[in-house]
Amino acid sequence: MIQGGWMAMRKKPWAIYVWPGLPHIWTRGSWSALGVAIIAAVLICAVMVGSFGWTELITPGVRNTLWASLVVIWCIAGLVSAVKLRHDAAKDETGKCENPFGQAVNLYLKGDYYQAERVLNNLLMENPRDLDASLMLATVLRHTGRFDEASRQLDQLICFDGAEKWELEIQQERELLSEAKYKLKDKHANGMTIAS
Fold it and tell me: Which end of the chain has fewer beta carbons closer than 10 Å to its terminal beta carbon, N or C?
């Protein structure tokens, strides 16, 4: 999770980390981060005016203290931003796992068909009439070469109310299933010919 947080940070332009509050304005549109960014702007302007503009207003000792304080505050704000972004990214990652169907889709897209099947079967145990999970399970079964199970899954799916919304996808899945069966049969026929 933490690594995902750092990955999320790396996807943003590095320059946003230079200004306190800007990363949270960029990623979340945070009002409190806008306040931090404005306070940082006022603070740097005040220190710069006191150092370069009206130098007689601030004694050199106070000026050095202000610059040192500014650097320390700036570094602390940067660290707080980095830690908060890591925490937010980790929270987003765990939030993705709360949606089992979304998790199954992610696993399917990664090619982890057996884990996707496990999640989909759990979903179907909770709600056997989950059309989305049933269709996805048929697709996963086709990808794992279990064509008969995939065909049975599609046959069950078409019997449920509301399956008409997936009519086109069910038909496409049946076509892909027939094509996969044909390729497997052709592959075995060619293998038998070569072996003979």
Answer: C
Q: Say what the pTM is.
A: 0.49
- Within 13 Å, how many C-alpha atoms sit on residue 141's CB side? 20
Query: Are 117 and 134 in contact, with CB atoms under 8 Å apart?
Result: no
What residue ranges of the chain have pLDDT lower than 70?
1-14, 89-97, 188-189, 191-196
Give me the CATH topology for the region 100-195.
1.25.40
Per-domain residue ranges for the chain?
2-97, 100-195
Amino acid identity, position 158: I
Number of Cβ within 10 Å of residue 172's Cβ equals 12
What gap in Å lies between CA 129 and CA 135, rounded to an integer? 11
